[in-house]
Design brief:
- The chain is of the alpha/beta class.
- It has one domain.
- It contains twelve helices and nine strands.
- Strands 1-2-5-4-3 form a five-stranded mixed β-sheet.
- Helix 10 packs antiparallel against helix 11.
- The protein is globular and about 50 Å long.
């Protein structure tokens, strides 16, 4: 376990009378992960089962999905386009030797871009060997594009300006803050915004906490040149202004704590045996929770807190299939 210490955080306390008591969402982390994922749905793709691909003659794409994702980001950068990794490949990019990720047979790639670059990014992917789902892109392409590397059966999603699942994360003006992925704060929020989180997302959140400091900014822009950071101001911009965000995130921090207390093993944060993780995930979790709960809350947050769970605080986006 690493010895790095998270920063000390102090801020104005929340008025307890305005904060509903956070109930235990489950008796154990095992119960949580066994539950069906109905609270918030991801985009679905038809026939996404992974088949280990052989090297395809004449293929322009790389067999390893992380190497291929980084190649595409580099091509976009050289063309002046803002394209960043998100999702599971982004987590792997920040912890390429994390054994929990390297053991998974993953192939999907998720990108983030801005509306200004959307058409050029879509054209780039076609030039680089990806087949567009023309119907989907005509209907939904302003917000999300879908492509497939057909020889490798590799689906690619391109989100434009925002992620909308249980909660919304707008990232259009944040793409330049980090490369080759979205800023780590956004990656962590994309996990913590899931109303019914699963074990994979819990472990992704823990490795992000274990490998990045909590800071007042995003750290090094290029993660290949230095250490990126989890921006506390960015996290608090959601949790201090939107009660629903606060409720979901703090609930999931509780799930992470239960996992650490009951099911956690050293293998969960094994990054290849060359070194321990940089930060103790327990200390990081405690510091993040303190920062979120101690930060002053907006009037809007306080008014919404009085309603609590009597009104649904998250959305359930419809699944979108592909042919």
């Amino acid at each position: 376990m690493g010895t790095g210490q998270p920063p000390q955080v102090s801020a104005e306390s929340i008025d307890p009378s305005l904060v509903p008591r956070l109930r235990s969402r489950s008796a154990s982390s095992g119960d949580i992960f066994a539950a069906s994922f109905t609270g918030c749905k991801r985009f679905s793709h038809v026939d996404r089962a992974y088949t280990p691909p052989a090297m395809e003659p004449g293929s322009r794409t790389l067999e390893d999905p992380l190497a291929e994702a980084l190649r595409i980001v580099d091509v976009a950068d050289r063309q002046g386009l803002l394209l960043r990794l998100m999702g599971g490949m982004a987590v792997r990019a920040h912890a390429p030797d994390w054994t929990h990720r390297t053991r998974r047979r993953e192939v999907d790639i998720d990108f983030a871009t801005r509306s200004k670059d959307r058409k050029a990014v879509f054209a780039l992917l076609e030039r680089e060997g990806y087949t567009p789902d023309k119907r989907h892109n005509a209907l939904f392409g302003q917000h999300q594009g879908y492509f497939v590397d057909e020889p490798r059966r590799r689906p690619v999603d391109v989100l434009v300006d925002k992620l909308e699942m249980c909660h919304r994360i707008e990232f259009g003006d944040r793409l330049g803050k980090s490369t080759p992925t979205l800023p780590v704060a956004e990656l962590l929020l994309s996990k913590l915004q899931i109303v019914k989180i699963n074990k994979k997302d819990v472990l992704d959140a823990l490795i992000l906490l274990a490998e990045h400091p909590l800071g007042q900014d995003d750290g090094e822009v290029d993660s290949s040149k230095g250490l990126s950071a989890i921006s506390l101001p960015r996290i608090l911009s959601f949790t201090s202004n939107d009660w629903g965000w606060w409720w979901t995130v703090t609930g999931n921090l509780g799930v992470l704590q239960k996992y650490l207390d009951s099911d956690f093993t050293a293998e969960d944060v094994d990054i290849g045996g060359q070194r321990p993780v940089l930060f103790d995930p327990r200390a990081q979790l405690e510091a993040l929770r303190a920062a979120i709960n101690d930060a002053p809350k907006s009037t809007r947050w306080r008014l919404r807190s009085r309603v609590g769970e009597r009104q649904q605080w998250y959305v359930e986006p419809e699944e979108v299939g592909h042919n």
